[in-house]
Design a protein that fits this description.
alpha/beta, binds NADP nicotinamide-adenine-dinucleotide phosphate, 9 helices, 248 residues, globular, seven-stranded parallel β-sheet
């Protein structure tokens, strides 16, 4: 079930788009979180099949309509046999409420789960890996950013066909406080010496982020594609026909 008014609005919008002509089989980790729980209903609405890996304690928290499998995201051997026949792997696991105080947890959870997912996907020859990274470089949250840069390096080393999305902060229900920063961002975007950073580290909405993820699912790449904030922002403006046309 959709979790919020914003999810319902997004679903209504997606209902007006033509169905994807190439339904994907999606394996997703971290699907019970803020982004995953908004993304999964949209993927289902678009006609894709979704299998979500959850830890046993979160079994009831995956949006309905998805196939639930359980395992330990920190040990790929616990779930590797459940990935096939998926052609698309979306990795969303991460420590909740990231802060500089959680540096050790980023390495123990975010990095370990990403490395396990990347190696499992590469070993199985999964057609398309989608990784939710973070905008970089950045002047703050160094440990959080460093872990995601390391995971991106592993994706390159393992030569995965992959889409890496790099938002900085996704605004939405319960994630509203940075709205207060929007006027500061606007000013910075006009100052030549900081405008590139302001754009790279800009805020995106939940709707923009979900549409960028959907576009990634429906436009699998050969090689590597990095999607940064300006491109995430434009994903919601992509006409339905374009989303369908880009489908490989
Ligand atoms: N939201 C943003 O603004 C933003 C911006 C840039 C990057 N990101 C990254 O994008 C990803 C998704 O973000 P989000 O906001 O949806 O995160 P979230 O709401 O905190 O959800 C995190 C997900 O990771 C799972 N998880 C956490 N620790 C785990 C563990 N030890 N073992 C197994 N699963 C675990 C959670 O499962 P449970 O439900 O079982 O706890 C949940 O499904 C994260 O990696 C985040 O760092 C987010």
């Amino acid at each position: 079930m959709p979790a919020s008014i914003s999810d319902i609005r997004l679903l209504l919008r997606v209902k007006q788009l033509p169905q994807s002509s190439h339904p994907r089989r999606v394996f997703i980790t971290g699907g019970t979180g803020y982004l995953g729980s908004s993304l999964i209903p949209v993927l289902l609405e678009r006609g894709h099949h979704v299998r979500g890996l959850v830890r046993p304690t979160s079994k009831g928290n995956l949006p309905s309509g998805s196939e639930v499998v359980s395992g330990d995201a920190l040990t790929a051997n616990s779930y590797k046999h459940l990935i096939r026949p998926s052609d698309t792997f979306i990795h969303l696991v991460g420590v909740s409420h990231p802060s500089p105080a959680k540096a050790a947890e980023f390495r123990a959870i975010d990095l370990v789960s990403a490395s396990e997912a990347i190696n499992a996907a590469a070993d199985l020859g999964i057609a398309h890996f989608i990784y939710l990274s973070v905008a970089q470089p950045a002047p703050v949250m160094k440990a959080y950013v460093a872990v995601r840069a390391e995971a991106e390096t592993l994706i390159r080393t393992r030569r995965l066909n992959a889409t890496i999305l790099r938002p900085w902060y996704v605004l939405g229900p319960g994630h509203n406080w940075p709205y207060a920063l929007l006027p500061i961002y606007k000013v910075m975007e006009f100052l030549p010496f900081v405008s590139q950073s302001a754009k790279r580290l800009g805020l995106v909405t939940l709707e923009q982020m979900i549409m960028a993820l959907v576009e990634a699912v429906e436009s699998p790449v050969q090689g590597l594609r990095v999607v940064e904030v300006p491109e995430i922002r434009s994903a919601q403006n992509t006409p339905a026909s374009e989303v369908t046309r880009q489908t490989a």
